[in-house]
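Lecture 7, part B: from sequences to assemblies.

Below are the input chains for today's worked example.
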Amino acid sequence: MTETSISTKGSNWGYAPAPESADHFKLKEQYGLFIGGKFVPAGSGKRFATINPANEKTLAQIADAGEKDVDKAVKAARTAYDKVWRKMSGRERGKYLYRIARIIQEKARELAVVESMDGGKPIRESRDVDIPLAAAHFFYHAGWADKLGYAFPGKSASPIGVAGQIIPWNFPLLMVAWKVAPALACGNTVVLKPAETTPLTALLFAEICQEAGLPDGVFNCITGAGSTGAALVKHPGLDKVAFTGSTDVGKAIQKSLAGRSTKLTLELGGKAANIIFEDAAIDQAVEGIINGIFFNQGHVCCAGSRLLVQESVEQEVVEKLKARMEHLIVGDPLDKNTDIGAINSKAQCERIRDYLKVGQDEGAELFQTKCPVPEKGYWVRPSFFTKVAQSHRIVQEEIFGPVLAIQSFRTLDEALEKANNTPYGLSGGVWTDKGAKIFKVTRGIKAGVIWANTFNKFDPSSPFGGYKESGYGREGGRHGLRPYVELS
Amino acid sequence: MSSSLAVSTNLNLQAHPVDEVGIRERVARLATRSIKKASKVEGLKLALSMVDLTTLEGADTPGKVRQLCTKAIHLHSGRKDLPMVAAVCVYPTMVRIAREALQGTPIQVAAVATAFPSGMNPLAVKLEDTRYAVAEGAHEIDMVISRGDFLRGDYGRVANEIEQVKEACGKAHLKVILETGELGTLDRVRLASDIAMQSGADFIKTSTGKIQPAATPEVVLVMLQAISDFYRKTGKRIGMKPAGGIANAKAALNLLIMVREVLGPAWLTPSLFRIGASKLPNDMLMQLEKERTGVYQGLDYFSND
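Predicted structure of the full complex, as structure tokens:
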């Protein structure tokens, strides 16, 4: 330049805190069990605290349900089933579901804030993903309620009875919707047990059911830890159990139901391979890796936790991934700019840290970003391992955190072999500019859902579920109605 | 007219596929960044310092250009905390007037050349156009690529033309306008960016402002990624200039967010990032006044130049 004094120094301009306000509603100090349309204390009077994992402060006291409470809830659900819900026309049931969907939309902001406070997920995700999808699931299933005859042509669909549903802490309200909406649409009644670390939005959902005028006992919510869930599964009054959670607990539930006529669907763990070919749009693939493993702190059963990248682009992908990861903001889940929130619980945080150690002990190389993290609360910086082998535990086992294992491959066959070499079969991803390759890969991987040139996309009309130790049964779509009906 | 048309021997046309859906999603995610308070004020001032304040009308007069230059120096009456813009962008015949008006300031004078905006002239004319603008005192030349040659697949000719214009620029900086609104696909935007950078562009620029769509966030993102790849391979930092259709302060801040997260803070300087605009500064000024006083003021309080 000929004569210049314009600045050549880069600016360190950045983002000021932009917290979503949490003062437009007030949580109650304590929440009871929701049985027969009313909030009641636990029979034992016991309570436990639910905390905000971002600052370890107590949000509310929650009733701890014992066997007697479980029994009351199942009986309430049975009564509602026999006297009201099974006899109601599909059209009438649909009206309630539509009403619930609309109230979820109306309360979207409050629900998103509570979801982020109770579970640690960034407000960007609870606001843009969890809550809108939860409402969408109710809208979708409301539409099915009076059209079940069309879902199963030539057959007559009738409800099963009382469903016991146990959901995890990673998508609290969304899992309520995945479980409750199809059950209710098909004419069943429900006893739901949310996770003990994230019970709040399920309890707010119970309030929504009250507001929607849902007949008493059609939806019941019992809060508590694993023992409450075990008591629910053991209860002889259930016709159907649906569980989403870890593979270990899923196996235990399957054992405890053995010999009973109770139907069961399981949606368990995963260790998905995200496969990047050399002809992929690399920058978009890198973004897909980020969405695949760092969405919701990696607390996603279908997370793309194994990256398989073709060797000719491995270096480029790893360099770009590092650069991209340095822009991920870890911190206050209520800040609108936060990309990665708090780890859901102390126990999970310790589990992830154990795996970080295991990976290094096994000889893999750890990369973590340099971003600052708050002092209080549970945090793990976005991380990945290179120099990993197929036999490493970090490749074989589900970590359920923001930790990626990177391997390379040379040929398509090698990629498929590595992708399938896992006890899990929930999801997978493929990135290539060639349509033919997409079909080859999607046919070659045994997994319930495979995304092509995208990752972690969900829609109520699309069935979701696994193969192998990732469970069985489908949720969403026409397939997702099947576990909640008897066909004749 | 055919000067030397030898294909540039070093041109690397390696395909870098762009996934349009993925680009749209990334753009949407970047747009969720929330810029408030101090960050907003600082960002708007930074963006103002990056503006190429532009007038490219057939009806431009010396008076209008002088008025624009005054605005470039004093963006808003009564505020001493505002930067000057980076450059004033005019037609070649207005360069001398702009130079005089900006005497003693660091503000650069940019001239559009090479048969702007269509580029539908022989190379010799384009080169003469460039030499004239430089001789008049332009610090920067904004050239257009031959979209016809590019769309026909004659990439060597496009590259060659850029190389020759670069030579004609001498010490003046060269910005290469891709006119993305005429390229049709993001894959072509990427390819045109690669060719321009390899052929000597100091900056790559989206549009002339005469064709819509112009600087869409999708196009800007693709070009920024091309710049990032070029830097990774060569160590050379190429500048970026979105121009046309940047409607308001929020869009300008979104551009800064993109630059920051794709290229990093090293690019957050007027020497590597410019925003081509004529009306945009007033919206940014309005936002700055709102941050200062707490209330929005009417458009009548901001000078139209």
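Note for the exam: The interface with chain A takes residues 16-19, 21-23, 25-26, 32-40, 42-43, 46, 49, 86, 106-108, 139-140, 171-173, 225, 232, 256, 260-261, 264-272 of chain B (CB under 8 Å). Keep this in mind when comparing with the next example.
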